[in-house]
């Protein structure tokens, strides 16, 4: 798959794909004889991982570290697991905070909807 096809498939700009390659988030991308990128299934998996993690707010530095550890082989299994456990903890904390924020927003929206009907804005529960 070319960079154009990968860009369209994953809804990621070509510049972002090149950047991910340059910093090691997409390890070794094959090239055709004419120098055109030729993404493989393995490349797709790295692209999907990078996109998923970035959408969740995982820092680039963490992903770079994870990819570097992966390329070092099985001797880094424990380190990779520890890194992923730490990412998991941070995401769980973020989700809890977002849940609290959504609950607060739902309450406020509910109060405003009632105020539209009654003409009176009240913050009593």
From TrEMBL:
Domain HTH merR-type, chain residue ranges per copy: 1-69
Gene Ontology MF terms in the entry: DNA binding; DNA-binding transcription factor activity
InterPro entries: MerR-type_HTH_dom (IPR000551), MerR_fam (IPR047057)
Superkingdom to which the source organism belongs: Bacteria
Coiled coil segments of this chain: 88-115
CDD domains: HTH_YyaN (cd01109)
Classification via Pfam families: MerR_1
Keywords: Coiled coil
Protein name as it appears in the record: MerR family transcriptional regulator
Organism (species): Clostridium estertheticum
């Amino acid at each position: 798959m070319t960079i154009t096809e990968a860009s369209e498939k994953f809804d990621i700009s070509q510049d972002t794909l090149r950047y991910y390659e340059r910093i090691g988030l997409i390890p070794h991308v094959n090239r055709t004889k004419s120098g055109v990128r030729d993404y493989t299934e393995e490349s797709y998996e790295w692209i999907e991982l990078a996109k998923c993690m970035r959408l969740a707010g995982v820092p680039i530095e963490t992903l770079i570290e994870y990819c570097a550890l992966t390329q070092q082989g099985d001797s880094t299994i424990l380190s990779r697991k520890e890194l992923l456990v730490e990412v998991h903890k941070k995401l769980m904390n973020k989700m809890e905070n977002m849940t609290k924020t959504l609950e607060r927003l739902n309450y406020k929206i509910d109060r405003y909807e009632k105020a539209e009907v009654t003409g009176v804005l009240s913050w009593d529960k």
